[in-house]
Design a protein that fits this description.
Structural class: alpha/beta
Radius of gyration: 18 Å
Oligomer: single chain
Number of strands: 11
Helix content: 40-55%
Number of domains: 1
CATH topology: TIM Barrel
Order of helices and strands: HEHEHHHEHHEHEEHHEEEHEHHEHH
Distance between the termini: 34 Å
CATH class: Alpha Beta
Largest sheet: 8 strands, parallel
Strand order of the largest sheet: 10-7-5-4-3-2-1-11
CATH superfamily: Glycoside hydrolase, family 3, N-terminal domain
Length: 339
């Protein structure tokens, strides 16, 4: 295997649904993979609650065995899960519950930060070191995707809560992820299964950015780009493959950390492209870590090969792949030594 193929594996971020080490995951880690996301079923995502069967079977010891086995295979890794105040808490039952949304909104900042610290400390004890939270989107109208799943509909309150969340988990030695930049104030379609567009101008979107800025200022290590197609871009393009929006995140909001995509096979992101094509597009746009859904796990080798081929053909600069792989490795290495 070439050096670029290993680097390509190093920028892929596959979802695993269960705590059973499969041959696919072993192969991925052996080939240079540096990141895993512990996902949930569609039903768990919608309800925000883990199934009774999962709660019974996924003990702290099982989490620790899986994460330790993964690290033994792949070295320092990003081991990620959701832990949202208003949505999915993947380590439910293993970590303390997050405060209910209404309670979280009424808490003092220091109290909310402490609650997030306690959750992150338990997450860390299970072997997870990266939370794909908090949600920094603020809903400004009809939103079929995010209604009821955000911190607050008040921009300034959302900013205060995002900052508290990031500080709390960072204090526990866990990284946090702000999602889903540049925000989705109004969304009339489900981006995972339909082509969904955000019509706000860039100036209108900026009004919803205080929560992202507060999270960045508090030390968030990652930002997830959104799935929708943004009319504010020229031409209109999904955020996860938008050089313009990633550049705004870097230059205007001053974000220096890891930029990750949302699931590349979301309908709004992939469009008419293949997974390999959208992966190369995301890297070219400036993304560092490419989220691959569980159903696409068998395609990891094809995606990695396509990324390496794109470098060889001059369609993806060597420096861009190098920078993305280094960003992932540096965060994984840092978190492995954080206590």
């Amino acid at each position: 295997m070439s050096s670029n193929q290993r680097k390509a594996y190093g920028v892929l971020f596959p979802v695993v649904l269960d705590l059973d080490m499969t041959d696919d995951v072993r192969r991925f880690l052996d080939n240079g993979g540096r990141s895993l996301l512990f996902g949930e079923t569609a039903e768990e995502y919608v309800s925000g609650l883990m199934s009774a069967e999962r709660l019974q079977s996924e003990t702290l010891e099982k989490w620790q065995r899986y994460t330790a086995a993964a690290i033994e295979l792949g070295g320092p890794l990003l081991l990620a899960a959701d832990a949202d105040i208003s949505a999915v808490h993947r380590l439910q039952g293993v970590a303390p519950p997050l405060p209910a949304p209404d309670k979280a909104r009424s808490m003092a900042v220091t109290e909310l930060e402490e609650a997030c610290f306690q959750v992150a400390s338990a997450v860390r004890a299970a072997g997870v070191n990266l939370l794909l939270s908090p949600t920094a989107d603020v809903v400004g109208g009809t939103n079929v995707w995010l209604a009821g799943r955000t911190l607050s509909d008040d921009v300034q309150q959302a900013a205060t809560m995002a900052g508290a969340y990031v500080r709390g988990v960072r204090r526990a030695g866990v990284a946090s992820t702000l999602k889903h930049f540049p925000g989705h104030p109004v969304l009339l379609r489900q981006p995972a299964v339909e082509e969904a567009s955000v019509s706000e101008s860039m100036a209108q979107l900026r009004g919803y950015w205080p929560a992202f800025q507060a999270g960045i200022d508090a030390g968030a290590d990652a930002v997830m780009m959104g799935p929708a197609i943004f009319a504010a871009c020229t031409p209109a393009v999904p955020a996860s493959i938008s050089p313009e929006l990633i550049s705004v995140l870097r230059e205007e909001l001053g974000f220096k950390g890891l930029v990750m995509t949302i699931d590349l096979d979301h309908r709004s992101v992939i469009g008419q492209r293949s997974l390999a094509e959208v992966a190369v597009a995301a890297l070219n746009a400036g993304a560092d870590l490419l989220l691959i859904s569980a159903k696409a796990l068998p395609q990891l080798s094809q995606i990695a090969e396509a990324i390496a081929d794109a470098v060889a053909a001059g369609r993806l600069p060597q420096a861009r792949l190098d920078a993305a792989a280094l960003a992932v490795a540096r965060l994984a290495d840092r978190l492995s030594t954080t206590h």
